[in-house]
Amino acid sequence: xxxxxxxxxxxxxxxxxxxxxxxxxxxxxxxxxxxxxxxxxxxxxxxxxxxxxxxxxxxxxxxxxxxxxxxxxxxxxxxxxxxxxxxxxxxxxxxxxxxxxxxxxxxxxxxxxxxxxxxxxxxxxxxxxxxxxxxxxxxxxxxxxxxxxxxxxxxxxxxxxxxxxxxxxxxxxxxxxxxxxxxxxxxxxxxxxxxxxxxxxxxxxxxxxxxxxxxxxxxxxxxxxxxxxxxxxx
Length: 234
What we know:
The chain has helices at residues 74-78, 91-101, 120-123, 189-193, 206-216; strands at residues 2-4, 12-15, 18-29, 35-42, 49-53, 58-62, 67-70, 117-119, 127-130, 133-144, 149-156, 165-168, 173-177, 182-185. The chain is of the alpha+beta class. The strands form two sheets. Strands 1, 9, 10, 11, 12, 13 and 14 form a seven-stranded mixed beta sheet that branches. Strands 2, 3, 4, 5, 6, 7 and 8 form a seven-stranded mixed beta sheet that branches.
């Protein structure tokens, strides 16, 4: 199921033995654009403790009733490696976390040995550069809760077309200049301008996704698509 990641904020986490806490934000791998960890706030208002939860531990997500079940006990989570939210998550911390829960090191399967974790809060607001100029900024993400991948960047273009938002696949990113907070995509401004508008109050259906991929003339992630459109995206 495709869901806007804003729905993660405040989602209740239920351990096997009771309520654990709520989701604060998430971290994703900047090579694969996969969500690797949720940051969970545990404890009361006066004693907030932040821990990481991997999607590998998630058993079920109930978006309607706003909770998420994990195959962990509250004691397991309480004794997990502590998280310093004021510092980037280091590979050393990830290794300690993976060893604690018995998870494999996902980065050993990656072709990009210098991949890093990025927080949602870090990337929101990044400028989007089309092939022929700036076109908007990152305003959010749409995730797939089957594999916890970020399927789309939610791009706000209100500086050019008031109120319009569109979706762009991370697969169409040509380059990310993290130090400059810019994302370059391999499509034109005109193609983005004419793309199907995105309304985050509506579900992202397969029909809507098909419209997006058809417009840009790109192959879909769920099946090959050979036709191209006249959107001027190449």
